[in-house]
Specification:
The protein has about 60 residues and is an alpha+beta fold. About 25% of the residues lie in helices and about 20% in strands. It has a single domain (about 1-65), classed as Alpha-Beta Plaits (2-Layer Sandwich), CATH 3.30.70.20. It is built from two helices and four strands; from the N terminus they run βαββαβ. The termini are close together. Iron/sulfur cluster binds near residues 13 and 26.
């Protein structure tokens, strides 16, 4: 799994950080998402999928290939 974030779409809601704190963080200054792991390990995939589902800005794309 490859994770792609779109910082231009992100509205800083922080839902992704709650769902998968090992993969997503937020910039201190404006809350925009920061990707910590582009290729998260298998045990985190379900958390990452959950983050992508609940992101209100649809700013998280997953390449499951
Ligand atoms: S859930 Fe979406 S909008 Fe909120 S911080 Fe994460 S990427 Fe940005």
């Amino acid at each position: 799994m490859k994770v792609v974030i779109d910082q231009d779409k992100c509205v800083g809601a922080g839902q992704c950080v709650l769902a998968a704190p090992d993969v997503f963080d937020q910039r201190d200054e404006d809350g925009i998402v920061v990707l910590l792991q582009e290729y998260p390990p298998a045990e985190l995939h379900e958390d990452v999928r959950q983050a992508a589902r609940i992101c209100p800005a649809l700013a998280i794309e997953l390449d499951e290939a």
